[in-house]
Design a protein that fits this description.
Shape: globular
Distance between the termini: 76 Å
CATH superfamily of the largest domain: Aldehyde Dehydrogenase, Chain A, domain 1
Strand content: 15-25%
CATH topology of the largest domain: Aldehyde Dehydrogenase, Chain A, domain 1
Oligomer: single chain
CATH architecture of the largest domain: 3-Layer(aba) Sandwich
Helix content: 25-40%
Strand order of the largest sheet: 15-16-17-14-13-19-20
CATH class of the largest domain: Alpha Beta
Number of strands: 23
């Protein structure tokens, strides 16, 4: 649906060197997906604007890098308080631009805030190691130092949470940062930049730019960018990883997912079905940790599918800010069309249609209903692809061994879960499954902020996960210092390889 001709759209600016900049040569519409209408326009950054943002971050780096960690932590503490005070406002922005329900948006903002809480402990997290007398009168210690100017490229589905996985950790470690959020959901990042400045962050330390592939490439190829964090689809994650590696940059690129939940016959099926409904259809399935494939083992299959059908039918679909709504729209009309195409493909491939959500239950906006397929096989497109919509596929196997093998054959390895009352089965699953994040009777095993988030195989390109201790490692470099303070009678080192014995 096109915007009314008379409607003047609010402009979402970029944020460079502590200032909002709304003038540009190009703008793109931002939609409210519940209305199907453009309600804002966003500045699209060209290469000179990206260069301006990176240079502002580079200019701010020396002073911020040399600021004691305790003072950086105090700024982070004030930022934490402002985020908490403005949590409802940030959630409202998320609902307006993404479409997810307000309670869901509130929860996602809270999970981002918890990373800032963790970052407030940065003075302790940056401590190195010390060893006295590793050799005669020789001591060795390590220090963690920031890597420089960092960039973050974040997806549309978590406009607050995923950026908060990145820039607070990087900045607390003494780096400066340029964030490029998804152009579909740009406003929350600019609002967080305003709050960070209010918290006392010096100008230039945190910058926000918007744009498409041209803006991304300008960041990836900029000589002053030292590290890049990314969350998005697997093809783009691989492209970013390879481009950064060729240009000597540190990179963590989190890709797509096809998350499985294995349900054993001994599981509490009512509990499992409730958990799976939220994990599959919450946020209209637009989560990188959404459960999109259920592996029903043996006798669990028929009763589980009946429960899933009953519960999926009762989900209330509508605008995310409406009372009692449990599932909102998809983010764009194009994405809705893509998901609808997968539903039709599933029918053509012979999957059993238990629920068909391809007819929108709401007239306006980018809505779909809940879709449930049964007797899906690994060869089908609806299993092989990350659909990223309210589509749940049920596969049938006879044993836990078959279930583990099925999950391990999948190229994606972000998250998985098992539902069982058997400790032995759970322990075997935890040990043998080749996936980065595992839930035991927990459908969406997103780690808390003081652990790290990340998958395996085609769900992660790079060596380190985001936030937690691995986040500190990613945004710092370790320097090892070996020192000797010789007395006058200490002989100087000779030509041979020095030893410390």
């Amino acid at each position: 649906m096109n915007k009314p001709a008379e409607l003047k759209l609010e402009t979402v600016p970029v944020w460079i060197n502590g200032k909002a900049i709304a003038s540009a040569s190009r703008y793109v519409d931002v939609f409210n997906p519940a209305l199907g209408q453009a309600t804002k326009r966003v500045v699209f950054s060209d290469a000179p604007m990206i260069d301006e943002a990176v240079k502002a971050a580079a200019a701010a780096l020396p002073a911020w890098r040399d600021t004691p960690p305790l003072r950086r932590a105090r700024v982070m503490q004030r930022f934490l308080q402002l985020l908490q005070d403005n949590q409802k406002d940030l959630a409202r922005i998320v609902t307006e631009e993404h479409g997810k329900t307000l309670p869901d948006a509130m929860g996602s903002v809270q999970r981002g805030i918890e990373v800032v809480e963790f970052a407030c402990g940065i003075p302790h997290l940056l401590k190195g190691e010390y060893a006295e007398n590793v050799g005669t009168q020789v001591d060795t210690h390590t220090v963690r130092q920031p890597v420089g100017v960092c960039a973050g490229i974040t997806p549309f589905n978590f406009p607050v949470m995923v950026p908060l996985w990145m820039f607070p950790m990087a900045i607390a470690c003494g780096n400066t940062f340029v964030l490029k959020p998804s152009e579909k959901v740009p406003s929350a990042s600019v609002r967080m930049a305003e709050l960070f400045r209010e918290a006392g962050l010096p100008d230039g330390v945190f910058n926000v730019v918007h744009g498409d592939k041209a803006a991304v490439d300008a960041l990836l190829l900029h000589e002053k960018i030292s590290a890049v964090s990314f969350v998005g689809s697997t093809p783009i994650a691989k492209y970013i990883y390879e481009t950064c590696a060729r240009n000597g940059k540190r990179v963590q690129a989190l890709g797509g997912a096809k998350n499985h939940a294995v349900v054993l016959p001994d599981a509490d099926l009512e509990f499992a079905a409730d958990a799976l409904i939220g994990a599959a259809y919450g946020s209209a399935g637009e989560r990188c940790m959404a459960i999109s494939a259920v592996v029903a083992v043996g006798a669990a299959g028929d009763p589980l599918v009946r429960l899933l059908e009953q519960k999926a039918k009762s989900i209330k679909v509508g605008p995310g800010d409406a009372q009692g709504v449990e599932m909102g729209p998809l983010v764009t009309g194009e994405h809705r069309q893509k998901v609808s195409g997968f539903i039709q493909k599933g029918k053509q491939e012979g999957a059993k249609v238990v629920l068909d959500g391809s007819t929108p239950p709401v007239k306006d906006g980018f809505f779909l209903g809940t879709t449930l397929f049964d007797h899906v096989t690994p060869e089908m497109e609806i299993y092989r692809n990350e659909i990223f919509g309210p589509v749940l596929a049920v596969l049938r196997v006879k044993t836990l061994e078959e279930a583990i093998a099925l999950v391990n054959r999948n190229p994606y390895a972000n998250g998985t879960a098992i539902f069982t009352e058997s400790g032995g089965a759970a322990r075997r699953f935890e040990n043998e499954i080749q996936v980065g994040m595992v839930g035991i009777n927990v459908p969406i095993p997103v780690p808390v902020a003081f652990f790290s988030f990340g998958g395996w195989k085609s769900s992660l390109f790079g060596d380190l996960h985001v936030h937690g201790v691995e986040g500190v490692k990613f945004y710092t470099r370790t320097k090892v210092v070996t020192s000797r303070w010789p007395h006058q009678d200490t002989p100087a080192p000779g030509f041979n390889m020095p030893t410390l014995g």
